[in-house]
Amino acid sequence: MLVLTRRRGEEIVIGDQVVIKVVESHKDSVRLGISAPKDLTIRRGELLEQPDRERLGLEGPGPGSKEATPEK
């Protein structure tokens, strides 16, 4: 996994057609803008089913899932 540090207004370019821009950043969240071709599917990680997460090499349950939320 490539890990980058970006500031508001900075971009990450993937290939020739995908641009991810940091629109806002706060203490606990980052707002991203994504420019990509309409035929490219973009989904939030927490919406992926477990088999999809495993196929993509993502570890454990998605953030926000019941399995990822500690019990109180």
Inertia-based shape = globular
Question: What's the arrangement of strands in the largest beta sheet?
Answer: 1-2-3
* Main sheet record: 3 strands, antiparallel
- What percent of the residues sit in helical stretches (DSSP H or I)? under 10%
Mean of residue pLDDT?
Answer: 82
Total number of β-strand segments?
3
Terminus-to-terminus distance: 32 Å
Helix/strand/pairing class, anyone? Answer: mainly beta
Low-confidence stretches: 68-72
User: Over all CA atoms, what is the radius of gyration?
Assistant: 14 Å
- Helical stretch count? 1
Order of helices and strands: EEEH
Percent of sequence in beta strands? 25-35%
How is this structure best summarized?
The chain is mainly beta and 72 residues long.
If you had to describe this structure to a student in words, what would you say it looks like?
The structure is a single chain. The protein has 72 residues and is mostly beta strands. The protein has one helix at residues 50-55; strands spanning 11-14, 18-25, 30-35. It has a three-stranded antiparallel beta sheet, with no helix packed on it. Strand 1 (11-14) and strand 2 form a beta hairpin. InterPro entries: CsrA, CsrA_sf.
What topology does this entry show?
Blueprint: E1 11-14, E2 18-25, E3 30-35, H1 50-55
Antiparallel strand pairs: 1-2, 2-3
